């Protein structure tokens, strides 16, 4: 039997195990910590939702109101405030009934209406694909979170109950929802410190996607738990005895990873189940921070610590506010023991995250806690990412990057701690400090030593960024940055720069073809340009220039339309002049590496602008049949002398020790750099050294070749084409 065919029956059991709650059950649970007037408001919201959903049923056949009632109960178990619970009861009324946000504001409050609207999905008809709909709905929800973080808490409670009751959906829909849960919602719960929520979402999602693996692992964990009782009891008794000697009181709990975490560890680290379960884990909860460090000393005195396995998340908390001391010990019989030591407040924060100590009054946080502050900082970063993302799908991809960090902790020169994903580079650090710092960084010091911008950082390092106002992001940075903020900021800058370059190129192409008709662009009536833009269904003249620069529309045809002349056979146009300052709109072919002074041709490539080749380049033979794509180009008289062009040469030399150093010195003397070197030995006595050099033009290349020929071991020099 396959994993897919067993999932329905197993989920049916899960569904049947879910108790049906009543409004009296909900109000009784809420009355344990809310005053009577607020419980009455919850009851009012229930009756409103019950009336709005009248006649609607779930796939199971149960009245629809059972779902929002269960969602509200999840929120009540988290001790959320009454507005949040009311929003849980009402969370589907905007999406699934005729009730509007304005009605909710009048009947209840602006806070309740904001949360419900934030959770509601957008109209499905607005999107081409499921992926676009998912991405845009997530973007809408996260933007609403920036105004009220309770939006995501209600959404997570909604997703949790849906995951508990997937049994009546089609198999494909079950798997899609489970995949989305593991990919997005469980990581969001972890990012907000809601560990209990994350664990249940992960296990439910794993159960749906891989039911047989889930059942096998569950059975194996149950058996292992029974076999481990004796050694767990021995370790616990030893710790309690030593604590009593030190006058410490604490609660010791055996700690187990959830099923999905065990599965991920086995897959990612290629471990067997016995390897994963060979570790004995304990959580020790004490009264305060001072007791945490005292308990650490007790543990290290009882069993020897494993070197390099101690982490102090109290002094340096995780990005989601998590605090604890982690250590690994050599236990009895040599078994490894993982120990987490934390205070009671830290324990509550570790399990509930932003939902711990909820202090809402009239929609405002009173004081707040570390998790709330960090969540708001994270949301601020998410807003920056979405502003720089081109569309909702790109935003979703950037968000996924941000949701899976293995963290490192580095310091600014002033001692501020920044949390970054593992393998983050110096440029990632610069953007984490501020977008402007990232955009203008030119160098960096790590531990007072200059390092390349691509250097990967490690925990504990101190980083200083050196900036220059004239510096700008480099496209090559995208090869090594890993944070969503850095990638989004770099792409946003390059997109703006590219658009400017492409528009400028488009204008030059249009002017070139207009000149064949002895017409200047400035002489074209404004109405004729406006009519053409409307005819081509474009937004603006700038959009038209971009289309021309990217090669999506032939500039000749556009010029003909503007001069109202459909015969262009007598066109004699001056070439487009290439100055080397065109940026991303003009690309120089790698096959022949043209440099100023070469005879050149231009080929308009869709999406890349103009690609410049040498006139005699062999790779253009197949392109020559596309006459409409070729344009006349020539080097401008005022070619940018600060721009360096790459050129390939082959230097044949007699084999002699130090020959490569001689060549490098000679190239350096001629104010050039070697970008790449490739050495190929020939017949034992000779070698061909392929050099990629940076030159300003043919005359500069000629000077370098003359200098290289003066080296006595150099036999021959050829330019590669």
Q: What is the CATH topology assignment of the largest domain?
A: Hypothetical protein af1432
Largest sheet, in brief, is: 6 strands, mixed
- How many domains in all? 4
Structural class: alpha+beta
Question: Compute the gyration radius: what is it?
Answer: 33 Å
Q: Report the principal-axis shape.
A: globular
* Estimated helix fraction: 40-55%
**CATH architecture field of the largest domain:** Orthogonal Bundle
Low-pLDDT segments, ≥5 res = 4-17, 122-128, 359-368, 565-572
Distance between the termini: 61 Å
**Residue share in β-strands:** 15-25%
CATH superfamily (homologous) name of the largest domain: Hypothetical protein af1432
Characterise the protein shown here:
This protein has 721 residues and is of the alpha+beta class. It folds into four domains: 3-218, Hypothetical protein af1432 (Orthogonal Bundle), CATH 1.10.3210; 228-355, Beta Polymerase, domain 2 (2-Layer Sandwich), CATH 3.30.460; 492-635, no CATH class; 645-719, Alpha-Beta Plaits. A hairpin with a 3-residue loop joins strand 16 (600-605) and strand 17 (609-614). It is built from 28 helices and 23 strands. Strands 1, 2, 3, 4, 5 and 6 form a six-stranded mixed sheet that branches.
């Amino acid at each position: 039997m396959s994993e897919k065919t067993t999932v329905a029956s197993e989920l049916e059991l899960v569904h049947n195990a879910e108790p049906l709650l009543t409004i009296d059950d909900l109000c009784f649970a809420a009355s344990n910590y809310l005053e009577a007037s607020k419980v009455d408001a919850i009851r009012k919201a229930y009756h409103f939702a019950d009336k709005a959903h009248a006649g609607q049923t779930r796939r199971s056949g149960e009245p629809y109101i059972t779902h929002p009632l269960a969602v509200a109960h999840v929120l009540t178990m988290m001790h959320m405030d009454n507005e949040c619970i009311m929003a849980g009861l009402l969370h589907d009324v905007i999406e699934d009934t005729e009730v509007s946000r304005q009605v909710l504001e009048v009947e209840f409050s602006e806070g309740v209406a904001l949360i419900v609207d934030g959770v509601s999905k957008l109209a499905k008809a607005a999107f081409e694909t499921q992926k676009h709909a998912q991405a845009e709905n997530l973007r809408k929800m996260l933007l609403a979170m920036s105004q009220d973080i309770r939006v995501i808490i209600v959404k997570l409670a909604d997703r949790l109950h849906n995951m508990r009751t997937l049994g009546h959906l089609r198999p494909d829909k079950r798997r899609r929802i489970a995949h989305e849960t593991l990919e997005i919602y469980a990581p969001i719960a972890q990012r907000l410190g809601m560990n209990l929520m994350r664990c249940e979402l992960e296990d439910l999602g794993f159960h749906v996607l891989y039911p047989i693996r889930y059942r096998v692992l569950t059975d194996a964990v149950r058996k292992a738990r029974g076999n481990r009782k004796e050694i767990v009891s021995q370790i616990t008794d030893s710790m309690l005895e030593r604590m009593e000697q030190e006058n410490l009181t604490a609660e010791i709990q055996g700690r187990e990873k959830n099923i999905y975490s065990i599965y991920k560890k086995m897959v990612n680290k290629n471990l067997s189940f016995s390897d994963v379960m060979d570790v004995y884990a304990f959580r020790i909860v004490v009264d305060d921070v001072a007791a945490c460090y005292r308990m650490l000393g007790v543990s290290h005195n009882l069993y020897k610590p494993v070197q390099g396995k101690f982490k102090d998340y109290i002094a340096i908390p995780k990005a989601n506010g998590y605090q604890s001391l982690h250590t690994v010990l050599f236990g009895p019989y040599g078994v490894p023991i993982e120990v987490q030591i934390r205070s009671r407040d830290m324990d509550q924060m570790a399990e509930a995250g932003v939902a711990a100590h909820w202090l809402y009054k009239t929609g405002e946080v009173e004081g707040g806690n570390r998790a709330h502050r960090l969540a708001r900082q994270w949301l601020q970063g998410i807003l920056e990412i979405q502003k720089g993302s081109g569309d909702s799908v790109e935003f979703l991809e950037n968000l996924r990057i941000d949701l899976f960090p293995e963290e490192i902790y580095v310091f600014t020169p002033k001692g501020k701690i920044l949390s970054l994903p593992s393998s983050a580079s110096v440029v990632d650090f610069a953007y984490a400090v501020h977008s402007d710092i990232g955009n203008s960084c030119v160098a960096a010091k790590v531990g007072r030593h200059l390092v390349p911008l691509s250097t990967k950082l490690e925990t504990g390092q101190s980083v200083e960024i050196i900036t220059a106002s004239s510096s700008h992001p480099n496209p090559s940075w995208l090869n090594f940055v890993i944070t969503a903020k850095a990638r989004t900021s770099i792409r946003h800058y390059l997109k703006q720069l590219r658009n400017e370059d492409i528009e400028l190129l488009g204008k030059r192409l249009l002017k070139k073809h207009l000149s064949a008709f002895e017409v200047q662009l400035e002489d074209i009536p404004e109405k004729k340009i406006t009519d053409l833009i409307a005819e081509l269904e474009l937004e603006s003249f700038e959009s038209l220039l971009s289309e021309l620069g990217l090669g999506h529309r032939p500039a000749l045809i556009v010029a003909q339309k503007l001069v109202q002349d459909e015969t262009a056979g007598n066109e004699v146009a001056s070439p487009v002049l290439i100055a080397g300052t065109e940026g991303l709109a003009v690309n120089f072919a790698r096959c022949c590496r043209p440099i100023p002074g070469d005879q050149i041709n231009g080929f308009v490539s869709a999406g890349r602008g103009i690609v410049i080749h040498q006139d005699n380049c062999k790779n253009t033979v197949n392109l020559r049949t596309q006459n409409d794509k070729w344009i006349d180009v020539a080097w401008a008289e005022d070619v940018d002398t600060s721009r360096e062009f790459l050129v390939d040469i082959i230097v044949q030399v007699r084999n002699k020790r130090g020959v490569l150093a001689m060549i490098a010195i000679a190239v350096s003397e001629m104010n050039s750099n070697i970008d790449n070197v490739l050495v190929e030995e020939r017949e034992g006595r000779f070698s061909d050294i392929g050099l990629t050099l940076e030159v300003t033009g043919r005359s500069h290349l000629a000077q370098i070749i003359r200098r290289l020929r003066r080296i006595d071991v150099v036999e021959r020099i050829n330019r590669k084409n």
